[in-house]
Design goal:
By secondary structure, this protein is α+β, with helices and mostly antiparallel strands. The chain is built from 15 helices and 16 strands. Strands 13-10-12-11-15-16-14 form a 7-stranded antiparallel β-sheet, with helices on both faces. A 5-stranded antiparallel β-sheet has the order 5-6-9-7-8. The longest helix has 21 residues, at about 390-410. The radius of gyration is 23 Å and the shape is globular.
């Protein structure tokens, strides 16, 4: 414990866990970006809301910056502690606090994993419909902090749509009870929605009340092979017109290559440049007829070169693995990531321009595309060529990101669809938000965190 007040903190908050072992500092001091060297002051692991409040008040009194920490699965540097910050981990606050069968809500602590929420909801015959590949390690608090999306936004929307209420400890240590689970509440500003997506810059989420839904209907999964990038939106429009789409996910042959390198069998005898995993409701014969009609329509117009329909849950899981395994398969390459979005109607024009831009600027790089095309969200992963210095690689990628941000601005898009701004995307926030908007956000931040201790340096500078 190098900070003179840390022992005071330990004595003043009985039951608070404080860690300063180098291995723990490294583990808790970074997220999945792996670009910054972790250098936190210590790791505080509170057990309850009162301990969170006490830690925040201590930090304010001692001018110590705080980095709130969940599962640290983020890809924008939002959970990085590289400048002597105190990491405030919510890992111990991971319980289900209550279920209301009338309101159909589940109240949880922020450190609970998304997968545990799914299991708790299923135990009551209901579902929490937000879902993505990191479900086993990401936390609900982190999902709220970044307004996480995932593979079912097309049908169910982002995390924001499923938060009935939350409790937030502000930068002064005050506890705010926001939303309170009310369906209707027109009594002024909805501060709950300010907290959602704020990346820990306004406070620490210490409790969340989640809306639950009916279990999803029986579904079918289809993998389609596409001959060109240009037909992608044609296939999406056709499937959306005929089917009740739950998910529509796209990836390239390079993405499939990396997933299969980790094991598994190629889905087709031939290699195709682009692929789509589509999941849709299958409630009876009419849906089956519509599925076959959609497939025939796409093949007749040469939009689809090949396809496979899952025969049972095991094969459906295998097809989904081809999409959900991409991020894990790329992790060892430490790729440079772009996570962008445009309106679905603007997607065809943006895709054409972005593809031309990246092909021109990255001729010798392995660029892996995938994304949630049905909601306008693309993930672009750039792999460093062998022998290229890491700093040079990031520099090259940042030059291209500047051009990509300009392209997004022309198409009314966002430089961050679902991973937040953090440190990585901070230079390009003005491509998505006007200076007037950013100044309003600064003002809100000053009110809730007047000492500037909550995740400083993230999202935007003071």
């Amino acid at each position: 414990m190098t900070h003179p007040q840390l022992e005071v903190l330990r004595r003043n908050i009985p039951g608070l866990r404080l860690e300063a072992d180098p291995a723990e500092l490294e583990h808790y001091g970074r997220d999945w970006t792996r670009r910054w060297t972790p250098a936190p002051l210590a790791i505080a692991l509170p057990a309850d809301v009162e301990q969170v409040q006490a830690v925040v008040r201590w930090a304010g009194a001692n001018s110590v910056a705080i980095v709130p920490s969940g599962g640290r699965t983020g890809l924008s540097g939002g959970a990085v502690a590289a400048n002597g910050e105190l990491v405030l981990s919510l890992a111990r606050m991971n319980r289900v606090l209550g279920f209301d069968p009338i309101d159909r809500t589940l109240t949880v602590q922020p450190g609970i994993t998304l997968q545990a929420v799914h299991e708790a909801a299923a135990g009551h015959g209901l579902a929490y419909p937000v879902d993505f590949a990191a479900r086993g390690s990401c936390s609900i608090g982190g999902n709220i902090a970044t307004n996480a999306g995932g593979i079912r936004v097309l049908r169910h929307g982002n995390t924001r749509e499923w938060i009935a209420g939350l409790k937030l400890v502000t930068g002064t240590g005050e506890l705010l009870d926001l939303g309170r689970g009310l369906v209707k509440n027109s009594s002024g500003y909805d501060l709950r929605h300010l907290a959602i997506g704020s990346e820990g810059t306004l406070g620490v989420v210490v409790e969340a009340t989640l809306k639950l839904a009916d279990p999803p209907p029986p579904t079918q999964v289809m993998l389609l092979a596409l001959p060109s990038f240009g037909v992608l939106m044609e296939v999406f429009a056709e499937l959306r017109r005929r089917l009740r789409l739950e998910a529509f996910e796209f990836f390239t042959d390079r993405a499939l290559h990396h997933v299969l390198a980790h094991g598994g069998q190629a889905p087709f005898s031939d290699v195709h440049p682009y692929y789509v995993v589509a999941e849709f409701a299958m409630r009876g014969e009419a849906d089956e007829v519509a599925m076959l009609a959609a497939f025939e329509h796409c093949t007749e117009r040469a939009w689809v070169a090949d396809g496979v329909i899952a025969q049972g849950e095991a094969q459906a899981a295998q097809l989904w693995r081809l999409r959900e395994g991409i991020t894990e398969s790329l992790a060892r390459h430490a790729p440079y990531k772009n996570d962008v979005s445009v309106r679905v109607s603007a997607m065809p024009a943006f895709l054409a321009e972005a593809q031309a831009l990246l092909g021109r600027e990255y001729p010798e790089f392995d660029v892996v595309w995938f994304g949630h095309v049905g909601d306008g969200n693309l993930h672009i992963n750039v792999l460093r060529p062998g022998g290229m210095d890491g700093a040079e690689f990031v520099g090259r990628c940042e030059q291209v990101t500047r051009l990509l941000a300009e392209t997004l601005q022309r198409h009314g898009g966002s430089i961050s669809a679902e991973h937040g701004i953090g440190l990585v995307k901070k230079p390009w926030l003005p491509s998505t938000r006007s200076e007037a908007e950013i100044e309003v956000m600064r003002g809100i931040r000053r009110v809730l965190d007047p000492r500037g201790i909550m995740n400083p340096g993230k999202l935007f500078d003071p």
